[in-house]
Amino acid sequence: VTAGPTREWLDDVRYLTNASTGRMGIEIAREARRRGARVTLVHGPCSHPLPADVETVAVDSTADLLRATRAAVRGADFVVFAAAPADFRPAHRTAGKLKKRSRAARRPLRLVETPDVAALLGRTKGRRVHVGFALEVEDSFYNALRKMRDKRFDAILLNGPQNVGHGGGRAWLLTPDGRAEPMATDDKRRLAKAILDRTWPTGR
Amino acid sequence: VTAGPTREWLDDVRYLTNASTGRMGIEIAREARRRGARVTLVHGPCSHPLPADVETVAVDSTADLLRATRAAVRGADFVVFAAAPADFRPAHRTAGKLKKRSRAARRPLRLVETPDVAALLGRTKGRRVHVGFALEVEDSFYNALRKMRDKRFDAILLNGPQNVGHGGGRAWLLTPDGRAEPMATDDKRRLAKAILDRTWPTGR
Q: What pLDDT shows up at residue B57?
């Protein structure tokens, strides 16, 4: 299970990130543990407390997340990509601290895409079940279905932007057959249970 | 007292920030309360629990921090600028979510400076005592002294970059007479007490 945001550094003190608390992935890890799985939680800096009884691997950037998740999925049957990795990073990281009124600070910042962890690991998924998340603002079903196909997910939870950092918004679980089931998001523990009820690999 | 980081949004889910937990300002607010002061804590998103017995005002961006702090300092004797506001913000905030492989994402991001809260409020400080913080990577004493003068601080705590989010690094309290006193940073509660011991306004 991956969880939390990642950080992409502009200099030694500033970074790009998002408001993910890690809660969703943490509840999924906890629920998977409850079902008897051996769980590895690869997590960015979470503001929600980590579960005590699963293996945890802390990461910072999206590149770190890729490396750690690639190692963690070896031999796994089931992977839930619940992290909210930063999709962009500053092309250059300034050593030290970018100073106000400096030439370096006036230079436009080029953003480059970070590696797509779920898509890259999807290429070699074999018989592993992969479940992902999508946060879509517009054209949401269309984008989430495309994301599920591109990343070879077996199911994807589609969230509105109001769900980052707190529940309460609308969400659907989409499956490759095109079905979309509305899911209650106000209780992330129950949502974790509902997702695993529908995606837990059986008969292996 | 101001505390915590601020967030400067690139789009509706991503922002620039820093790793400040808010702990330093929170401990200063707590210690000031212990000394009998009426305290207002203006804070960005803190990962450290807020004190229960002081007035708190939550803010998000540096512009919010300026507005709320400007209101909070009216009638105050003593202001500690312990927040770590983002000094730069994306010149434009994209509505929705910046999409990968989009033209908008390839466009260079222009960063602009956010308002300097301590410097702006320093201009009209009158008899208020202002204490600030500096996080300096290089030329640190020189930069911190200039910052103290530019922002009209009565004292400034100079930190190395290793102190963001956790103590343990080196720090000095500088005063306008040019003195620099080394301060222990491993216990932020004790550091808060030591700072207030040396800067608390008396005889007013």
A: 98
A49: number of Cβ within 10 Å: 9
pLDDT of B43: 98
Residues of A with CB below 8 A from B137's CB? Answer: 12, 96-97
Q: Please tell me if residue A49 touches chain B, with a CB cutoff of 8 Å.
A: no
Of A133, A110, A120, A118, the residue nearest A20 (C-alpha): A133
Which residue in B83, B10, B5 sits closest to B47, CA to CA? B5
What's the full length of chain A, in residues?
204
* Chain B residue numbers touching A93 (CB-CB < 8 A): none
ipTM computed for the complex: 0.73
Burial (CB count <10 Å: 0-12, 13-18, 19+), residue A43: buried
The pairing of strands A14-18 and A8-9 is antiparallel
Whether the CB of A98 is below 8 Å from some CB of chain B: the reply is yes
- Quickly count: other Cβ atoms within 10 Å of residue A157's Cβ: 27
- Residue in chain A closest to B85 (alpha carbons) equals A14
Distance from CA of B137 to the nearest CA of A (A): 6
Q: Which of B47, B116, B137 comes nearest A97 by C-beta? A: B137
Spatial distance between the Cα atoms of B145 and B150, rounded to a whole number of angstroms: 9
The answer to whether residue A18 is catalytic is: yes
- What does the alpha-carbon distance between residue B115 and residue B98 come to, in Å, rounded to a whole number? 25
Any A CB within 8 A of B88 CB = yes
Query: Which three-class secondary structure string do you get for A42-97?
Result: EECCCCCCCCCCCEEEECCCHHHHHHHHHHHCCCCCEEEECCECCCEEECCCCCCC
Whether the pTM exceeds 0.90: the reply is: no
User: Is residue B182 classed as helix, strand or coil in its secondary structure?
Assistant: strand
> What pairing do the DSSP bridges indicate for beta strands B180-183 and B171-174?
antiparallel
Residues facing residue B14 across a β-bridge: A18
Cβ B117 vs Cβ B2: under 8 Å = yes
Q: Do A161 and B97 touch (CB under 8 A)?
A: yes
Question: Coil, strand, or helix at residue B105?
Answer: helix
A91 is written with which tokens?
């092309």
For residue A136, name the pLDDT band (cuts at 50, 70, 90).
confident
